[in-house]
Amino acid sequence: MKVHPYLNFDGKAEEAFHLYKSVFGGEFLASMKMKDAPEGDKLPLEEQERIMHIALPIAKDTLLMASDCVPSAGHVLHPGSQTYIMLSPDSREEADRLFAGLAEGGEIEMEMADMFWGDYFGSFTDRYGIRWMISYNKNESPY
Predict the structure, then answer these.
(1) Under a CB-based contact definition with an 8 Å cutoff, are residues 133 and 125 in contact?
(2) Of 43, 86, 117, 122, which has the fewest beta carbons less than 10 angstroms from its beta carbon?
(3) Is 117 helix (H, G, I), strand (E, B) or coil?
(4) How many CB atoms lie within 10 A of CB 76?
(5) What is the mean pLDDT of residues 47-64?
(6) With contact defined as beta carbons under 8 Å apart, do 69 and 77 qualify?
(7) Which of 55, 78, 79, 58 is nearest to 67 (CA)?
(8) CB-side exposure of 33: number of CA atoms within 13 Å?
(9) For the chain, which domains are there?
């Protein structure tokens, strides 16, 4: 299993990641805008250019990842809500086990489900206020 920090921004993810790239070097493994998501063209124009997902290798086996919040969907960035711990387990069964165990007593943001980008993904805040993402990809994803 790999563990990666996942950051949330309010429209500044792309700017921040260009700074991080200048410091850490390397190339983005992913950079998708909100307009690239299904029905992304229905978002307000200024939100379509926000980052849906960006990933930058910062060390061996460690990626720094992020997305921008979507205000029109009711997302509000609060202190403490800008960081997730993302787990990339080795199997779908392990993803379900981790999700069930860590989410118990917490607040589920997205149930585990197959996503349009190819991952089996879910997210939640545990009962202690820690935000988690579980993302499994059977195709040897760099995540």
Answers:
(1) no
(2) 117
(3) coil
(4) 8
(5) 93
(6) yes
(7) 55
(8) 12
(9) 2-136 (3.10.180.10)
Separation CA 132–CA 138 (nearest Å):
20
* Nearest one of 106, 95, 113, 80 to 7, comparing CA atoms: 80
Terminal Cα-to-Cα distance of the chain (whole angstroms) = 10
Q: If pLDDT is split at 50, 70 and 90, which confidence band does 130 have? A: confident
Tokens read off for 77: 């960035």
Q: Which residues contact 70 (CB under 8 A, 6 or more apart)?
A: 34, 43, 47, 50
Residue 142 scores a pLDDT above 60:
no
Amino acid, res. 25: G
Q: What are phi and psi of 17, to 5 degrees?
A: -75, -25
Residue 141 confidence (pLDDT) above 70: no
For residues 1-10, average pLDDT? 88
Distances (CA, A) of 12 to 8, 85, 97: 9, 20, 34
pTM here is 0.71
| Tokens linked to 40 | 């992304």
Q: What is the pLDDT of residues 77-108, one digit of tens each?
A: 887 778 888 888 989 999 999 999 989 999 99
